[in-house]
Amino acid sequence: xxxxxxxxxxxxxxxxxxxxxxxxxxxxxxxxxxxxxxxxxxxxxxxxxxxxxxxxxxxxxxxxxxxxxxxxxxxxxxxxxxxxxxxxxxxxxxxxxxxxxxxxxxxxxxxxxxxxxxxxxxxxxxxxxxxxxxxxxxxxxxxxxxxxxxxxxxxxxxxxxxxxxxxxxxxxxxxxxxxxxxxxxxxxxxxxxxxxxxxxxxxxxxxxxxxxxxxxxxxxxxxxxxxxxxxxxxxxxxxxxxxxxxxxxxxxxxxxxxxxxxxxxxxxxxxxxxxxxxxxxxxxxxxxxxxxxxxxxxxxxxxxxxxxxxxxxxxxxxxxxxxxxxxxxxxxxxxxxxxxxxxxxxxxxxxxxxxxxxxxxxxxxxxxxxxxxxxxxxxxxxxxxxxxxxxxxxxxxxxxxxxxxxxxxxxxx
Length: 413
Prior knowledge:
The protein has helices at 32-43, 79-95, 115-128, 138-141, 162-175, 214-221, 287-298, 351-365, 383-386, 393-397, 399-411; strands at 2-4, 20-28, 48-51, 67-68, 100-101, 105-110, 133-134, 149-155, 158-160, 179-181, 186-190, 193-196, 199-208, 230-240, 248-251, 260-264, 267-271, 275-276, 284-286, 311-320, 332-336, 340-345. It has 413 residues and is an alpha+beta fold. The protein folds into two domains: 15-61 and 162-229 and 329-411, FAD/NAD(P)-binding domain (3-Layer(bba) Sandwich), CATH 3.50.50.60; 67-160 and 230-320, D-Amino Acid Oxidase, Chain A, domain 2 (2-Layer Sandwich).
């Protein structure tokens, strides 16, 4: 049996059609990188408008597994990304403490895992500058771990609530002058003019931060045969209605399926698969994918095989093209297409850095000498401004209601 999982936002309403907006920079994509870019540019005094066919973080960014990477996952095969992750982990923890939870992470090797890889992994941690501590009492710290655990090392993995984080980023961008055009499908791009389902946006420069949909936007902009090198990759995640672990648990082996369990509020999220797809809007998840995740995860936490997942979901990651999804770098690349900059690759953990590099280049193109200050700009807990207080709505809607209210607020001048 196969499952087709649609992207659904229950708070979508019919939006009024606008006429024309004028701006210095039009950012297509209200995900992690697009929102941090809007904040970065607006803090530099540059007029920016964010366009998205859905709402805030309605694509890949809102469907991540909750891990704020320490970079440890990549120390054996992608050292540059590992170094970026540990630096950005520290920055995001400092500027958005309300959205980051310092659970720490534990990499564990179980019976049968390659002992030579353990030495390679620890050496990589040292090379990347990632703090780590060998743990002798892993079962005392994490009682649900397999009794076959033979080695454990603690790293500074953390958990992040992307909705809390990026609600604050969007709110700050708005406060600094950014405009938002949400639920607006891009229909056509003519030079630096963007024609959407809700009107037109005239800009001096376009930033394409559409994630796995970036090649489509690039194709609208250019009649040239240049192809954005992208490998859209599905990651399936299973949600358990129990918190089975205190720290983020990772299997200490080369990156594979079912090797991470993230404690997210009162749940645990098991992930992920890595399947390359052609169309990020149409993906099928087979029973075998789900069962394989459970089997692999159970080698680390046996209780996963005893419990029924509450639900499952997926995200489509915009990976740079490589020999395979697992071998692909988690670094990012910026394509300069004249009056459009396109960014692909990266991770939510490194989205602030990606936005900084984009904004540096955009500022240069616009002839404005400026530097990024987002690494030292505190992000507010904006969702709390719109949350329902002491009503049944808190339990029915939760943060989804507050996010929809924030979306309405940032679009109303």
